[in-house]
Amino acid sequence: MIEQIREKARELLESGELDVVIGYAEGSDPTRTTPIFCRKPEDTDKLVLDGRCVNTLPAYLNKRHEYPKKGWKKTGIIGKGCDIRAITQLIAENQLKRDEVYIFGAECEGVVAHPEKWDGSLHEGNCASKCSACDVKIPLDTDFYPGEKPEVDRSGPYMVSAPALATLVKMDDEDRFAFWRDDFDRCFKCYACREVCPHCSCNICITDRTMPSWVDQAAHTKGVFGWHLTRAMHLVGRCTGCGECTRACPVNIQVDLFNQKMKEVIQESFDYKSGYSMEVKPPLITYNTDDQETYIR
Amino acid sequence: MRTATLQKNDLDRVIDLLSQADYRVIAPQNQPRLDGPDSIDVAVFKEIQSGDSHNIGEGLSTTGIKPFLFPKDEPLFAYENRGKKVVLTEVSLDFPKTVILGVRPCDVASVSSLDAVFSDKNAGFNDELFTKRLEKTTFVSYSCTEPDVSCFCTSVGLAPDSDKGSDLHMTELPDGTLHVEVKTKAGEKIAAVIDALLSGDGDAVARQQAGVAAAEKITRLRDSAPILPWLQDLGNFGDEMWQRLGEKCLGCGACTFECPTCHCFDIVDENSGNKGYRVKFWDSCQFDHFTLHASGHNTRNSQFERYRNRFNCKFKIYEDVFGEKGCVGCGRCIRGCPVNLDITEYMAEVAHKAAIPNAMSADPDFE
Ligand code: SF4
Ligand code: SF4
Ligand code: SF4
Ligand code: SF4
Ligand code: SF4
Ligand code: SF4
């Protein structure tokens, strides 16, 4: 699979059709892979694609990460199904044009939940929970796919994947609040959860604004709650469920649980699943003159 | 100074005795986590009470001891507008007598790196919030026996058994006992409190061997000293390697906030109504607005420039300005980086550029 992708990537870099191919290469220890920007055809020899490829590479197509400054006319990107879902969502939100990117996809067998759990293979104990409810193992929209792409029915509703969410929902309000208060005590506001997210695309995040300051910048209880609740709301109907925010958090705060819960709510209220259509806009960023709610018209 | 033997399962008794002697005791503890494959084990230093479980001697904690000397946020003073008058209230500098137990050698060595910044030794200003805490803190360090793949203390002049900055140092021996070495007056006080648990004068030979055996397990070997001249040559500031290696950096502050020596902070007024606090809190040179001027000009306008700063801060600026280690080789910035940006790859690359042999001896793949 990766051989065919390497070959195609090399060909398109050689012909000049692509300026760059963003993919994964071997990391600095055997449990990890690392993002790589292939500019020269021979760079494609370094590409790998396996269960250690955790990063959501479309974060690099996000203007927060200097994407427009790179001056790439056409960007190749290797994506797992969930990454391609993120690209689809970026396009739906007018953050990217479809013809700016060339998408390499392949059938996905899942990824490890965290590099530290990699023991040479992918299995039930170390596979990310998002993969258990995944309907994009065969990716949605690709420009290059090795072999024939089978049709897949993806009409089902959004499914919460993290078992931890069931535990949390069962707690009473007080216990749940205590849980988050204790967990948030570790948050030092490094914003790794924001930076890895393909959909945290604001040039200046509201938490970084100081005139006025909307959210306390310091990582005390108020500042941390302020950050996480704001972030959860800003991703409603936009999060494509890649789980990277949780995976990237150095102190194991499972931030994506908020986003998973809100995905469920958006599914129930608006019958909307983010990342499945470039045309249908996320409900909370659209304006509709015949909205059934009068306060919004 | 005194050496002795302590039984490892007496560590709980050590905590009891120190608590009874009015020490606030801090120790690494595993944090509770939710079920499911997505969560990982995290250990952090926290205040511990008698009977609480701890994980002293079980790997390097996810975050270090920095928060007990330089908290992630703290008020500098409170203010209140009363008509035409502003009333200021100072914060108390009366910090509790504290002992931090089970500190790894890299972490305890990092204290002097922080001290270089916050005390008036070099900086000409004494940040009492730091120095007064430090005066009240005793460090009981604990040699490593199982360094992991990201550890590289031996590349920065330290070792899995070094006791730099320690008041009382413990080393676990193959027979499960702890070899105890008193290093300072503050350490003597600890030894006096736990005297009933100490016996004999230890086994200095076995302790030495344990250190050597641990050091042999370290696989990342990048001698940091020879890369300094290359970094000091300003002509190399524009070298192509900075962009090539740093391009993937996403600009989160994970590496800086997990780092025991990173010390940057910001100050802001948190106002509510007519009163509030002036608050000091951690900042990171990896953030895009860290060097943003009021004019809108940003002196480090791209992410790779921000990581170039971080690397130079550790291996050049610290050496030039403080004559101290900026990096203690704990490897946290490697473990915690979401994109596997690896500081030792920069070290190897610089060594390669400067044509220094041996510096990348453990890296046969390096082209
Ligand atoms: S969620 Fe699906 S596409 Fe994404 S890594 Fe898991 S199995 Fe692959
Ligand atoms: S990644 Fe973790 S520690 Fe960093 S801001 Fe997010 S929740 Fe807090
Ligand atoms: S919020 Fe988290 S899970 Fe959702 S898209 Fe962003 S990084 Fe992925
Ligand atoms: S090096 Fe890694 S941890 Fe540090 S800012 Fe860049 S992406 Fe974040
Ligand atoms: S730079 Fe990295 S390895 Fe060095 S002390 Fe900081 S976190 Fe540890
Ligand atoms: S870097 Fe050295 S001292 Fe620090 S945890 Fe690893 S082996 Fe121990």
How would you explain this protein's 3D organization?
The complex is a heterodimer of chains A (297) and B (367). In chain A, a hairpin with a 6-residue loop joins strand 1 (20-26) and strand 2. Chain A is built from eight helices and five strands, in the order αββββαβαααααα. Chain A folds into two domains: 2-131, no CATH class; 163-285, no CATH class. In chain A, strands 1, 2, 3, 4 and 5 form a five-stranded mixed beta sheet that branches. Chain A starts with a helix and ends in a 27-residue tail after the last helix. Chain A is 28% helix and 8% strand. Chain A is an alpha/beta fold. Chain B is of the alpha/beta class. Chain B has two domains: 3-63 and 92-216, no CATH class; 227-355, no CATH class. Chain B contains eleven helices and eleven strands. Chain B has helices spanning 11-20, 105-118, 128-135, 185-193, 204-216, 228-232, 240-246, 254-258, 303-322, 332-336, 343-353; strands at residues 3-7, 24-30, 43-47, 73-82, 85-90, 98-103, 137-142, 168-172, 177-182, 265-272, 275-282. In chain B, strands 1-9-8-7-6-2-3 form a seven-stranded mixed beta sheet, with helices on both faces. A four-stranded antiparallel beta sheet of chain B has the order 5-4-11-10, with no helix packed on it. In chain B, strand 4 (73-82) and strand 5 (85-90) form a beta hairpin. In chain B, helix 7 (240-246) crosses helix 9. Chain B is globular and about 65 Å long. Chains A and B meet through strand 2, helix 3, helix 5 and helix 7 of A and helix 8, strand 10, strand 11 and helix 10 of B. The structure holds iron/sulfur cluster (SF4) (6 copies). One iron/sulfur cluster (SF4) binds next to helix 5 of chain A.
